[in-house]
Amino acid sequence: MITLDTIRKRFGALDVLQDVSLAVRTGAVTALVGPNGSGKTTLIKIVLGLTRADHGTLHVDGQPADDAGAYRRAIGYMPQAAHFPANLRVGDVLDLVTQLRPGEAVDDELARAYDMDGIRDKFVGTLSGGTRQKVNAVVAFMFRPSLLILDEPTAGLDPLSANVLKEKIRAVRREGRSVLITSHIMTELETLADDVAFLCDGRLRFAGPVAELLSHTGGRSLEDAIAGLMRSDRAGRRAAVGTAEPVPVLPWLSPEPTGVA
User: d(Cα 169, Cα 78) in Å, to the nearest integer?
Assistant: First the structure.
């Protein structure tokens, strides 16, 4: 579904992504995790075509990520906080998005579950954060994209609404579509993710099935495993200070992770 090969991105003197190679499996939910500043947002922006990699290649659903941007029609994106025009009604937003993709079948399952008909006449600027997040989810899933990129998707949602969204994610996976999801709620990711990709300081430190990560780290949960990776990485960087070569901190990983097979 997504294949990234030796992606590099630099902003000034800062290496944000360093030779990231990752393959996201078709029909699976992949959790993209890492500490703040690890490069997750930049990686997502590159996949979305919002910024360009300095080096490397990207394919989405078999299509190269070129300047024409046709590959983006296969992507549904749910940002952490959507910024719809405050002076538009909810119905205006949904109608506008539909008009941008004329003739395409519309998936209205989330719209019905979140009762969008009941709030069509409300202005976006008057909505609560949770209700805006529901509109955000409806738009992301609307055209049955083969790839969903979800950034903190349950942020602001009440437990019932979050459960509805998580069930929709599971349904997408059963249909053979792919999901790339970021969240700081590890317990949530553990119930959804098949695979995990761990970024730290712009480098991909692990990519593979959740079960493999738990086995290698001995963690009882995904939260334990990720916390262990972060502690190991920090310890390695401290040990590397003043040495000519970085100290390998995760010896059970290959030097150049190839991603999820």
Answer: 12
